[in-house]
Amino acid sequence: MAEGSLMKNSTNGDMTAADYFATNPKPASLDRQSTIARAFIEQHASEGRRVALVTSGGTTVPLENQTVRFIDNFSAGTRGATSAEYFLEAGYAVIFLHRHFSLLPYSRHYSHSTNCFLDFMTHNEAGAVVVESEYQQQMAEVLERYKKAKRENALLLLPFTTVNEYLWYLRELAMQMRPLGANGLFYLAAAVSDFFVPAERMVEHKIQSSEDFHQDAMTNGQGGRAPAAHMDGKSLMIDLDPVPKFLKQLVDAWAPQSMIVSFKLETDPALLAKKARYALEKYAHHLVIGNMLSTRKWEVLFVSADGGERWIRVPASRRTKSITGRDGDLWENAESREPAIEIESWIVPEVAKMHSQMIEKSRSPG
Ligand code: 9Z3
Question: What are this entry's molecular-function GO terms (predicted)?
């Protein structure tokens, strides 16, 4: 077969999803985690509970097999981790497919906060370590919700790092979730790279910047096509391939009965609605949630075939936390620049409502 022809779809030159999985390595942890996920899904399917796959965090694109350097997509994991909590509150079981070491449901309140988690602690008179009195109530509430999720085995945490791991996991979990039918929900908040280094173009060792140590690109690589990253004089040249359109596969082949919600991240306000609409039309799934990098915590754009376009916005007065005390159900932290209202507390009930309507529709004949 001529070079490249194995990898490309003959109609448009892009790699197909099937080619992708045939030529990029399966993560070593996938089979073990898949067995765990199957048991989790079976338990909740037998109870008739809805299951949401929430993806979260950025995906990396390693430049070397023994990875020293990589490209990353922006995402702290706030959207995913916060949404996962609200899905649990809405009665869903949640598979949380997240970037390793990004924010996690519940622990997010302490792990990456502007305070070190030790600042929440103090010693009592007996010398035992206890929670500072000002954080007692908030921590008791988070702890209660966390324990409930654990008791009900309602939260499964699965980590990924690279975009390759993410794609393998997404496909595997989609297959596992098929028996859920319309009770399955995909909420794709992870920031997924559009580009990657295919296995056959990945160099093995750290790319040497010094001209005195330049490797012969071909001997360092896997052979075949030229390595995706290599030195050209003093410059590092990176030439990435496009990631195949996995969302198309998810909608059409991997999870045709589930509700699918994707996120669209933009920085140019002139493009957001256009791109969200384009994605909805192209993939024909249920909902695209558009957000701008700079305003993602206060406003999102819902674009759906049924509901058209509408903004969900936190009012200006609630976009920063007040300095003192608690604010209803919401937690306040004088150091933090987080909004007083978590927009996910509005997004998730809307998504759950649309999901209910979809389930209802799938039950009614004709
Ligand atoms: C998002 O748009 C997420 O809302 C954010 C969340 C990454 C902005 P944080 O984790 O940020 O709260 O810091 N995700 C982007 C999803 C994405 O990459 N979508 C792909 C695309 O737009 C296709 S599914 O092409």
Answer: catalytic activity
Give the mean model confidence (pLDDT) for residues 9-14. Answer: 59
The H-or-E segment that residue 87 falls in is helix 78-89
Q: How far apart are CA 311 and CA 261, in angstroms?
A: 16
Question: Using one digit for the tens of pLDDT, what is the confidence trace for 49-93?
Answer: 999 999 999 999 999 999 999 999 999 999 999 999 999 999 999
The rounded Å distance from CA 263 to ligand 1 centre is 5
Asked if this assembly's ipTM is beyond 0.90, the reply is yes
**Exposed / middle / buried, residue 329 (Cβ in 10 Å: 0-12, 13-18, 19+):** exposed
pLDDT tens-digit series, residues 121-162: 999 999 999 999 999 999 999 999 999 999 999 999 999 999
CA distance 345 to 189: 15
Hey, which of 108, 265, 343, 345 would you mutate to test ligand 1's pocket, going by the most ligand atoms within 8 Å of its Cβ? 265
Task: Taking residues 331-346, report their average pLDDT.
Answer: 70
Residue 142's Cα: distance from chain center in Å?
A: 22
pLDDT for res 103: 97
Between the CA of 123 and the centroid of ligand 1 the distance, in Å, is 41
User: Within 10 A of 165 (CB to CB), how many other CB atoms are there?
Assistant: 23
Q: Which helix (H) or strand (E) holds 216?
A: none
Q: Output the ligand 1 site: residues, CB below 6 A.
A: 75-79, 188-189, 191-192, 247, 262-265, 291, 296
User: pLDDT grade, residue 321 (50/70/90)?
Assistant: low
Q: Residue 233 — φ and ψ, nearest 5°?
A: 65, -125
Q: Which domains does the chain have, with CATH numbers?
A: 39-194+245-363 (3.40.50.10300)
